[in-house]
Amino acid sequence: MPIKPLYLFPNLFTAGSIFLGMMGVFYASKGSFVTACWLVVVCLVLDGLDGRVARLTNTTSKFGLEFDSLADVVAFGAAPSVISYFYTGYTYGRMGMAACALFVIFGAIRLARFNVTTQTTDPYSFIGIPIPSAAVLVVLAILLDFKYNLFKTQYGYLMLVYIVFLGVMMVSNIRYPNFKKVKWNLKLFVLLVFFLLVLFVRPLEMLSASMLCYLLYGIVRWIFLMAKIIFKYTQK
């Protein structure tokens, strides 16, 4: 049965994500970390477009879902992991290798869990931080360190701790909002315009602040829920 060209269109975005993820790895191997990291950020944009394009063109398919997951392993699992290893992980020998490899493993588990539970879970939230968000948090940390020298040489191990922490967050049961299902209104539109304006002026800082807020939102919400449950239990 011949494949209609329209069905290939959303998958071009997915293929582009794989391509840019691999380009990020190649650039990192040459020491071009800024370019490598921004390529992963662009992958996030492509990842957000492929699903929307598929829904708009009514070309969603099981193949597209599986292809998207494989692309995520490359662009948001392997790419940020290898970039991190070339950036600082290699200085810590096997510990650096293990930390970077764990990020990929946890990311693959996160994707597998998402694929088998996507029809049974709340469509307005994710269980565990999504792998694209975790990947962007990794590369933004590298970009911030490259620009502001946050970790410095003697604190490079904090980068490894951070990578493993994000890996654990991916396979955790902490819920994160799914903005793909957000219903737009005037207030959200105004916030988006403000975000884009600040993003234009200070892209790295605005992206980093936004992603950090997203990461902390899930953690703080989980702490409050646990505290509420414990308080309710102790009152019995």
Kindly describe this structure.
- With 236 residues, the chain is mostly helical.
- It has a single domain (5-184), classed as Up-down Bundle (Four Helix Bundle (Hemerythrin (Met), subunit A)).
- The protein has eight helices and two strands, in the order ααααβααβαα.
- It has helices at 5-29, 33-56, 62-87, 93-117, 131-148, 157-171, 186-201, 203-234; strands spanning 125-127, 175-177.
- The longest helix has 32 residues, at 203-234.
- It is globular.
- 33% of the residues are buried.
- Its EC number is 2.7.8.8.
- One of its GO terms (biological process) is phospholipid biosynthetic process.
- It holds the Pfam family CDP-OH_P_transf.
- It is an enzyme of class 2 (transferase).
Question: What labels would you give this structure?
Answer:
236 residues, mainly alpha, Four Helix Bundle (Hemerythrin (Met), subunit A), two-stranded antiparallel sheet, 8 helices
SSE diagram, text form:
Blueprint: H1 5-29, H2 33-56, H3 62-87, H4 93-117, E1 125-127, H5 131-148, H6 157-171, E2 175-177, H7 186-201, H8 203-234
Helix pairs in contact: 1-2, 1-3, 2-3, 2-5, 3-4, 3-5, 4-6, 5-6, 5-8, 7-8
